[in-house]
């Protein structure tokens, strides 16, 4: 049943998802909305659940490969749901799931709160960071996350709070990746009492070291593959001379071999084929299976 637009504000059909991913690829969403409040998000999620539609929430789309055919069901993007409150005295921080994690890292630095200095170069949201257990430069979300507030689409009138210890947080993994829940906000416990200037310096220097070694000027999704410990995926790919390898406009970055960049008008199928090609070559030559860190959505296989 088609919902009344007055009941579900902002709901639209056939939205091109390229603008909602950092790779700038992907087809249309059958249904799409960017809710302006948690209540709107709950109403939209409840509608999709009742209608038996596939439902997913995306943040900044910085870890997504969305198929060219697009996504069936309802795609919610929470990037309008921003904001954070920080207590410089206690270190408690509560942030809406759509808050960009670099913005939160800068706010924390200004408040003299240490902990999120690593997060400044990760172009995702707080919700995406919790789901992915995002991390960099020796730090990760799990180190500082206290709890998340969640919406279960099956019970949209109740908000559930789960502590970090119940989320199975591990390297680029959380239980949130396997559940239909939508993260509404996250609570962090940071270290108070630091000199804001020093925290700011560490934050800026982390950003500088990333932008000088990674291809930030081209559309990408960050590191494509998980590091197969004790190896580094980028090193394995570079050793095979695969920098610059191309399918269509999808290219293994010449700056960082674990990045695939959209060098023009790449399609999701090009990127997906390049991922498979790199996996095949690394397996053949090194005997190591690389597993993507990026989330593939809407693919048949
Ligand atoms: C240039 C660049 C550098 C990067 N560097 C790093 C890095 O150093 N370390 C790192 O870990 N990652 C890195 N990434 C990848 C990415 O930024 C992180 O994985 C980030 O945490 C994803 O957040 P997002 O909001 O973009 O999530 P999305 O990509 O939108 O979504 C990722 C997954 O989380 C789910 N999701 C998102 N928000 C919610 C929500 N509110 N509720 C429920 N599910 C949700 C989505 O459905 C999807 O399964 C990089 C990406 C780029 C483009």
How does this model look, in words?
By secondary structure, the chain is an alpha+beta fold. It has three domains: 12-77, Uridine Diphospho-n-acetylenolpyruvylglucosamine Reductase, domain 2, CATH 3.30.43; 84-211, Uridine Diphospho-n-acetylenolpyruvylglucosamine Reductase, domain 3 (2-Layer Sandwich), CATH 3.30.465; 233-297, Uridine Diphospho-n-acetylenolpyruvylglucosamine Reductase, domain 1, CATH 3.90.78.10. The chain has six helices and 16 strands. Helix 2 runs antiparallel to helix 4 (196-211). The structure holds flavin-adenine dinucleotide (FAD). Flavin-adenine dinucleotide binds at residues 22, 56-64, 78, 97, 122-125, 127-129, 131-132, 134-136, 182-183, 216, 220-222, 295. Residues 22, 56-64, 78, 97, 122-125, 127-129, 131-132, 134-136, 182-183, 216, 220-222, 295 line the site of flavin-adenine dinucleotide.
């Amino acid at each position: 049943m088609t919902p009344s637009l007055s009941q579900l504000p902002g709901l639209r059909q056939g939205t091109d998802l390229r603008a909602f991913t950092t790779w700038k690829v992907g087809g249309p969403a059958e249904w799409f909305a960017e809710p302006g409040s948690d209540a709107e998000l709950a109403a939209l999620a409840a509608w999709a659940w009742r209608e038996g539609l596939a439902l997913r929430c995306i943040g900044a789309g910085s870890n997504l490969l969305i198929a060219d055919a697009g996504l069936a069901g309802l795609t919610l993007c929470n990037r309008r749901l921003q904001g954070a409150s920080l207590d410089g005295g206690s270190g408690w921080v509560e942030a809406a799931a759509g808050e960009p994690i670099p913005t939160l890292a800068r706010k924390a630095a200004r408040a003299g709160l240490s902990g999120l200095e690593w997060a400044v170069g990760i172009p995702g949201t707080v919700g995406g960071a919790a789901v992915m257990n995002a991390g960099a430069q020796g730090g990760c979300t799990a180190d500082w996350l206290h709890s998340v507030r969640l919406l279960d689409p099956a019970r949209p009138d109740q908000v559930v709070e789960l502590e970090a210890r119940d989320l199975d947080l591990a390297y680029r993994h959380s239980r949130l990746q396997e559940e239909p829940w939508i993260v509404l906000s996250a609570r962090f416990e940071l270290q108070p009492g630091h000199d804001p200037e020093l925290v700011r310096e560490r934050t800026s220097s982390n950003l500088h070291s990333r932008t000088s070694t990674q291809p930030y000027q081209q559309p990408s999704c960050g590191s494509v593959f998980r590091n197969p410990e004790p190896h580094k995926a980028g090193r394995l790919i570079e050793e095979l001379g695969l920098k610059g390898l191309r399918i269509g406009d999808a290219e293994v970055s010449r700056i960082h071999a674990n990045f695939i960049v959209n060098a023009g008008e790449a399609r999701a199928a090009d990127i997906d084929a390049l991922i498979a090609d790199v996996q095949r070559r690394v397996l053949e030559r090194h005997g190591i299976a690389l597993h993507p860190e990026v989330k593939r959505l809407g693919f048949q296989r």
